[in-house]
Specification:
With 387 residues, this protein is α/β, with parallel strands linked by helices. The chain has two domains: 51-155 and 280-307, 3-Layer(aba) Sandwich (Rossmann fold), CATH 3.40.50; 156-277 and 311-367, Rossmann fold (3-Layer(aba) Sandwich). It contains eleven helices and 14 strands. The strands form three sheets. A six-stranded parallel beta sheet has the order 2-1-3-4-5-11, with helices on both faces. Strands 7-6-8-9-10-12 form a six-stranded mixed beta sheet, sandwiched between helices. Strands 13-14 form a two-stranded antiparallel ribbon. Helix 5 (156-170) packs parallel to helix 6.
Length: 387
């Protein structure tokens, strides 16, 4: 091999070696850093489903009294809790087998809190509650409870007593009239408290009662009010749900009270004031308990009055004497502070029998079982449901 050829081959080998080294160098160079993995988007916690709440009403929401007051309480719940709740109602639910059907339908629709707003729903609610343990039931004016059902009430007798204070001052005939609904202790207690309030300012008063056997029946209420006025009563109170009694007093030139709600507009000339119920404090408290998982049943009914903001007497007529207004204010302040008791002895029934001894204050068990008329109320309590 010639020297020239040898040099060419060596040069070619050297170039090949350099090329191989270059390739090896390239293979050892750092690869670009991988792109960081994308951070997963934060998933928002699912929004809690609103608490579904249903109300069963015995009368129409436009009755101007009892049911109207409950529906105002329902609206207060919506205002307080916004989208945390969804409320609904069924009105004019009879105190019969229909009540059980309506309550079961409310459960089927997913309601977890159900309010039954009249005494006659007690037994149907107990039956439905036993079959729907995941639902909370609240029964107005009753006295039975279960693990998922409790009873609540307002001390309407406090409003009745305050109305009596005004009635005793305003009557000219010393004869008062009451249109009664159903003769259960709740209603009898209100009639008696009205009379005791009147007697506290006018010992001469007597009270006549006409029963209509219904909570909401404007024609019967009108007929009863007319009968009382024709019998000499010039100031009327009712324990029924419509403004018919006040309207009748207005048309016949007599005086009367609003009941459960402010009824001034239904008879402005006749209206002496309204004994009103504010269900909002209790309803808001109950819903908050359920939302915070703090709801629990109670062996006795939860009974709120003036002290808790559930009862008031409002829209007192301008012609009520100042001394009557002062007495009313004193009673209201005493009830709020707990320093005044309406049912404090001595108290006798209308047969002369002592039912509360001197200085004895009636407890809630006594108040819950009243089935007699106090002195000054004419007649006898008809047979009926007893609490």
């Amino acid at each position: 091999m010639t020297d020239l050829k040898k040099r060419s081959m060596l040069k070619l080998a050297a170039l090949s070696a350099l090329a191989s080294a270059a390739l090896v160098g390239c293979s050892k160079s750092e690869a670009p850093a991988p792109a960081p993995a994308a951070t997963p988007a934060t998933t928002a916690a699912p929004k809690a489903e609103p608490l579904k709440i249903a109300f069963a009403y015995v009368g129409p929401v436009g009755d101007g009294g009892w049911t109207f007051a409950h529906d105002n309480g329902r609206k207060a719940i919506e205002k307080e809790f916004g989208d945390k709740v969804v409320t609904s109602f069924v009105e004019k639910v009879p105190e019969s087998a229909d009540a059980e059907r309506v309550l079961r339908d409310m459960v089927a629709q997913g309601n977890k809190l159900i309010f039954g707003t009249t005494f006659g729903y007690m037994e149907p609610m107990l039956k439905v509650a036993a079959d729907a343990k995941d639902v909370k039931f609240e029964h107005a004016t009753g006295y039975k409870s279960a693990e998922n059902l409790r009873a609540y009430d307002s001390r309407t007798y406090e409003g009745a007593y305050m109305a009596g204070v005004i009635a005793g001052k305003m009557t000219k005939t010393n004869t008062l009239g009451v249109v009664g609904s159903i003769p259960i202790p709740e209603v009898v207690r209100n009639i008696n408290s009205f009379t005791l309030g009147a007697q506290s300012v006018n010992p001469k008063v007597k009270t006549k009662v006409v029963w209509v056997g219904d909570w909401f029946n404007p024609p019967k209420e009108t007929e009863a009010a007319t009968s009382l006025i024709n019998g000499g009563a010039d100031v009327l109170m009712q324990n029924t749900d419509s403004p018919a009694v006040l309207k009748t007093a207005e048309s016949m030139g007599k005086r009367a009270f609003g009941w459960d709600s402010d009824m001034t507009a239904y008879g402005p000339k006749a209206h002496l004031g309204s004994a009103v119920i504010n269900w909002a404090p209790y309803y808001i408290s109950t819903v908050r308990e359920v939302l915070e998982n703090k709801w629990k049943t109670s062996p006795t009914k939860i009974w709120w009055g003036v002290k808790e903001g559930a009862i008031d007497f409002v829209s007192v007529a301008a012609d009520v004497p100042d001394d009557a207004k002062k007495k009313l204010d004193d009673v209201k302040a005493g009830l709020k502070a707990g320093t005044f008791s309406i049912w404090k002895g001595p108290i006798v029934d209308n047969s002369g029998k002592e039912v509360l001894a001197k200085d004895v204050v009636a407890d809630d068990n006594f108040l819950g079982g009243i089935n007699f008329y106090v002195k000054g109320v004419e007649g006898k309590v008809p047979g009926g449901d007893k609490k």
